[in-house]
Amino acid sequence: MSPAELSSAAQACVDVVSRGGGDAIAAQALNYVSEATWDALVERHRGKGCEALAARGLQAAGIFVCFTAGGTMQDCACVRDLLVNEGKTLFDNLLRGALQNWGDLPSRMQDAIAAPGTLTA
Known about the structure:
Number of strands: 0
Largest sheet: none
Mean pLDDT: 76
Structural class: mainly alpha
Number of domains: 1
Distance between the termini: 26 Å
Low-confidence stretches: 112-121
Radius of gyration: 13 Å
Helix content: 55-70%
């Protein structure tokens, strides 16, 4: 992954999360865990990075944690891991899917594999 690719992906995360995407990610998380659990997860990892949240379903939460910590998104392990291991198309699908129903995340990732270079709706 080139520095330019990382920078572009980091900016995409900042754009999505800062335009209300963080609230959407939190709302989706609350469909699966209690508010107390979500708050504890965010507080526990804020400032420490998202390495412990590296499972694909939690990487959206990890990106949110990195963003709320105030660091640079280029330092976010979840962003880097997604780009290195899944590529830009799957990264884009996961990021967009994080704002929608998390139950659809596995299929969004598979759809991108089936149709490289395209984003699912």
